[in-house]
Records
---
Amino acid sequence: MGPGNDTLISEFLLLGLSEEPALQPLIFGLFLSMYLVTVLGNLLIILVVSSDSHLHTPMYFFLSNLSLVDICFTSTTVPKMLWNIQTQSKVITYKGCITQMYFFLLFGGLDDFLLSVMAYDRYVAICRPLHYMVIMNPRLCGLLVLMSWIMGALNSLLHSLMVLRLSFCTDLEIPHFSCELKQVIQLACSDTFLNNMVLYFVFVLLGGGPLAGILYSYSKIVSSIRAIPSAQGKYKAFSTCASHLSVVSLFYCTSLGVYLSSAATQSSHSSAAASVMYTVVTPMLNPFIYSLRNKDIKRALKRFFGLACAKRTIILR
């Protein structure tokens, strides 16, 4: 099939969250609803940020990029899952599986990198407010996003090429709703020691690195907020990073929860169900967190819908 793969396999079987036929309509309706909310919610954030001049700042530039990545992240897995349920098929081609794995790793890594970039942005805004616009200039913001894309692409390319070198047995059933990297590696007949070593090394390096950066940024932010004399000043400073802190907590807590659940249980279906939290639920909740906890986004949404209603009234007249 692919380079370095000596087997004649042409497809894998995605077993999904449950093999019970009676549950398939419920799963289809639930995931379709969550997917539509995710796409519409994040798309609305992108439209509001791009259309409102008050939000043309580094913080909202990174937020719109995060929303775009969340749409793409969810779109790598959920549509295929919905299609398989609708057609009553569990098949995904070998090439389709590798492609899905590549983009899943790419956008998952981008989520991680962008959250650390946003933490750095909040650090500069609170700890060095007088130099904020000088430090977080458009060139640096664009460079940070570009570097996030490059590191995410290299990471996903490395893992995908490592999988291409594997040979697979006749058992090609993946107890998941997507081609999750670890599950695919476990199906291989050939030696997977190098794949697992690279997997854990990259996980520690690219997972722990951004997390360490986020923790360091917020340790400095907390120190700066504690030094502010007035309670009102402390609240105002904290409110500027409350939404981001909520998203970071949700992303890492769900990711850690999935890792711990997969380590504690032998049930692959349970692990797949747990992974729904960070692959589907987290991208769906991010727009609500930013819109409900952010006054600037609230005002921009009111102006956006007010302008849309005004245009509609003019057209109807």
---
Amino acid sequence: MVDKGQVIRLCRSLLRAGRQLPDYNIREYAKRRTFDGFRMNKNLTDHSKVEKAYAEGKKQLEVVERVVKVYLAYPPKTKNIMELKLH
């Protein structure tokens, strides 16, 4: 059975993993997607649905961690307009 602490740890893990993404747009998408997913499921009470949502969150965490590894292995050659420093 999934308890509240596990859900909070999963949310924090997803947010931490998303902050490691080097691209601004993907980083913001990951953050928005995390918050939206947890808001959407915050009122779940059925244990089977909670377990299913938690398992989906764990899968999403694995996906984000894989994407971070790929981005770190093959960084983009140009910077995003949001990351350029204007002088």
---
Amino acid sequence: MDNKEQKLSLKREVGLAGAVSLIGGTMIGSGIFMSPQTVLYTIGSPGASLVVWACCGLLVILASFCYAELGTVIKESGGEYIYILRTSGPVVAFLLIFSSVLFVRPAGVVGISLSFAQYVVAPFYPDCAPPVILVKCVAATAILTLATVNCLNVRFSMSVQVFFMVAKVFALVVIIIGGMVMLARGHDENFKDSFANTNLGINSIGIAFYQGLWSYDGWNNLNYVTEELKRPEVNLPRAVVIAISLVTGLYLLVNVSYLTVMTPKELMSSNAVAVTWGNKVLGSWGWIMSVAAALSAFGSLNGTFFSGGRVCFVAAREGHMPDILSMAHVRRLTPSPALIFTTIISLVVLIPGDFQSIVNYFSFTAWFFYAITMCGLLYLKIKKPELPRPYKVPIILPILVLVAAVFLVLAPIIDNPQIEYLYVSLFIFSGILVYIPFIHFKLCPGLLTKLTLFLQLFLEVAPADKNL
């Protein structure tokens, strides 16, 4: 008999098309259909709102270039968690994974699923707001459906991602063409004196950026699945450039179309801006935009699930989460325990979920850790210049992204302090109370070992090695 053990690892099944679809398909989700009205309301003028959307795109492009270098230097899955672990140490990395697993990732899933549900039920309640319980039930159904898809097969979930990427780009192109036709007919009154009443307060700018950047969320998703990407040193930078450039251009043109068709007042008062646009431009066919927005959010939710489960998986592999979450299904080679865990936490967060609050606190927490990640890249550039770098960015880029991230974290707090931001900060740092006894001193009860063994047999999973 052959005494060599057959190692279990996730397969490299994500090519360039899948990579572009994972980034672009996750970014183009609920945000572009839910956030434009909030950005406009917060910043105060159509011209300033377009500037915010353009600046958000520029910031994301710069940040993604920095992540592309990190992903080719540290060729492990896990995104900013693994980068912070390798540059800032286990304590800071655990604070990230603690807040990410229990809040940031589930909040992202819940925010997208709620917007998906809003668009699904919107055609049935044309003259009033739909019941909250109905919206949350539809959102829960979407979460459970995509959790099942991602647990079954990586290739199938990538096929779903590519399909919805094509569908949502088509929907945005329809909106853009409709707006261009209206603009060509002379409907440019909303762009006259377009910077009047602009709110230049630090808090207003910060919140507007939070809402805009929510629509760009997903730009770093490919870094979470580096070990499943074919030729990451080539495909990671290429996918980033293609996907984010495409999304930024589409977002700007879609916002121009919204402001061409609707007055600022109409846009700010709309609960589902794509449906309002569809009713005004497409008439009786306006319901198509509701379907398109729902499909877009569904595809984005799939991408969030695909990458989010990998964060738990990598953290468990590094000893920062229970061992069961570092295992993969023995036949399907998917990290099903991590995906199931993410699903359960998301359903719990969904119960009290409120879309706007989720966006603000999600963005605050996310950019706090993006700032730490940029510090890690600067450390590698200065202290470890000898490391092989298939892709390299000028040192000024991580400095610019770091300054922007610090502004986004501090701006809402300094200009308009709210007790909720203190709660979020305390929640992040409360992870130390978990780290010291359970991770540093390894005070794990024997019951956890028995539970791991039971779940391993029940879920048919086994430990998975790194795929480097």
